[in-house]
Protein 1
Amino acid sequence: MTTKQPPPLMKKHSQTDLVSRLKTRKILGVGGEDDDGEVHRSKISQVLGNEIKFAMREPLGLRVWQFVSAIIFSGVAIMALTFPDQLYDAVFEEASVNSKTPIRLYGGALLSISLIMWNALYTAEKVIIRWTLLTEACYFGIQFLVTTITLVETGQASLGAALLLFSRVLFVCISIYYYYQVGRRPKKM
């Protein structure tokens, strides 16, 4: 009783055949251009999204703005946590602080947002960058409105408040500009 030896393992010829591979990729729907002009190398990148192209086409100055924003948020947060009286006095001159707790809570909230800003600095994901830019624009816009209403109610006008309001309008414009630039579709070549 002799047992037959199984035949040696051989590669399937169709896997090495270029035409067969191209047919398989076409059936899977990969390798071709999609509606957005992106070429996906695998079904996984097609489903999950491919953000590699974005790393090469960032708007000029985006990373610098993200870095400056993270520093601004961190600096104001640390100042609000450690020196709440001085922060309040810089905007509303000749006004006394009744309680330091709200200013310190404001500092804690800003510190939390600054952590998000620092993390967004190291990502290449368009969605995350856009959300942080939208967060910045909303924060600066709301701060502008609240400060303006408070100054009108109290009837106080100071150079510090004017500089704060001007800087907030400028920061909203910069954040919105980058928000739209990051969301823009790349030009097809």
Note: The radius of gyration is 28 Å.
Protein 2
Amino acid sequence: MALMAAVGAFASVVCSWFWWLQGSRDVQTENNPYLGFIYTSFQEKATFISHGNTARLAKHYGDTNLARICGIIASDEKRHEVAYTTVMGKLFEIDPDASVIAFADMMHKKISMPAHWLYDGHDEDLFAHFSLVAQRLGVYTAEDYADILEFLVARWGVEKLIHLSTEGRKAQDYVCGLGLKIRRLADRAQLRSKQKHTIPFSWIFNKPVKL
């Protein structure tokens, strides 16, 4: 029975990996380099944070191997973040109007992690449920999303941009005020989510997990 359960859990992981590979190509960057560098700047910062937090949790609960693996991945993600934000910073210097418009466009679409296509063959809302667990555990939260946005606004000097077009100024106002809006929405969502539900995850032998 234990062997069958292990095989079933492994099959679910493989299935999830397959769906991730199939769907993760579409992150709404439209083959636009401005959108691409904004997306990757944000996404690499997010994965640095989430892997770092996972490493800390793993260490706290005694899984030193997992902590080391996640720590190595977090370090890699940090290097990627530095590279992409530096490139995008140069684009802001050379072409601030198009850059800030692209920034606003990408934030309107919302930055979805490539894993939002995850599917294990059972749960149609797998990534949504996974995200709720990550939020509850402090692995990656709405506050982190707002923090990353505000970090990029400061990193690229978005508030200080001048000589923008009308569309560029609207984009500037939007991205500079978005962090506060996200925090307010997160606070409201936190107040509404008093009732806790559980759902089984096929990756861990269908063990029920609190959302």
Note: Residues 53 and 79 are 17 Å apart (CA to CA).
Protein 3
Amino acid sequence: MLSFEMNDRKKIGLGLTGFGVFFSFLGIIFFFDKGLIAMGNILFFSGVALTIGLKSSLQFFSKRSNFKGTIAFGLGFLLVIIGWPILGMILEAYGFVVLFSGFWPTLAVFLQKIPILGWIFQQPYIRTISDVKVIESRHALL
């Protein structure tokens, strides 16, 4: 099993990613403020690049299976910048789901191991939904 060594660069990357999500959330709360959403996107991308490395992030976003998500996210970011934040966020959300759909199984396992929140995600109905997502993502990879 690979260990995830936490050096200073990765700590800063995780912090930037968290701030990116926070600023995007604030931008949505404040009636789709394009400045906050754009700042959140920039912080998110720079955080991902610092966390996994520039080469790995370029490989991830330019993978043939991720082109649709990368283009949707990029067009959404461009729409936010030019002043259409609602349509841009819809495109970004679609691109985000397409890009990171392979991580749903890992996220489901992580959520089930959180002390209080994990109890909710271990309930039969929610577990069925997460199991379906795992099966769908495995079929998408084949």
Note: The chain has a mean pLDDT of 86.
